[in-house]
Amino acid sequence: MENSLPPAIFIAGPLGLDFLNSLARPIAELVDWLGNGAGLLSWMKQAGLLTVDDIAVVKSSMSSKELDRVAAKARGLRDWLRGFVTEHMGRPLKAEDLTQLGPLHDLLASDEMFWSLVPGSTPLAMQTSGKTSPRIFHLRAKRRFRNPDSLLSPIAEEIAKFISSSDFRYVKACQGDHCILFFLDNTPRHARRWCSMAVCGNRAKQAAHLERLKKRKSSKKRRS
Asked: What is the helix (H) or strand (E) element at residue 116, kind and residue range?
């Protein structure tokens, strides 16, 4: 059940790339946050793609079987994205790579997004007679979740943002043993190797330290 899973992992930078990290190996066993419909909703909520109100609407209009089916489609989308990222990471994307984005284009074309004016509460830096005027309304994008497949639309949008705005030369896979996480390396020297220095980076340092100790002991035995 999704409520027995650890919190989802968001370390990639772009949320569209973090979609790949909904399948991970935090410790030893593989964890899939999209294993069923309930898991998909939970992951999307943690990612900020669904609100509590959105989930209430979805659960009231869609059955668990329907949600499980769309979760399977989400896993298929993730597999497609993993293949695309694995093939192209480490080099700039080219115009002809657009031909490989058919599955993404299909989802983007089916999106039911619309714009709505909502009450605003934050000040707007607009000077009127030397005074700051409040922002009365915000223009906000919303979606209609009329069928299970529409749940893939916000994910598709994030994938499209990632692909269109990220330098694929710096998309990397963690070099940690057994780790399958991806990230966009935005460090100044682009020398990042690990999903997290606190996890895989620390493990690598410990492993290297143990290897050096073994070599020293072996060298001492040979000399004695």
From this structure: strand 113-119
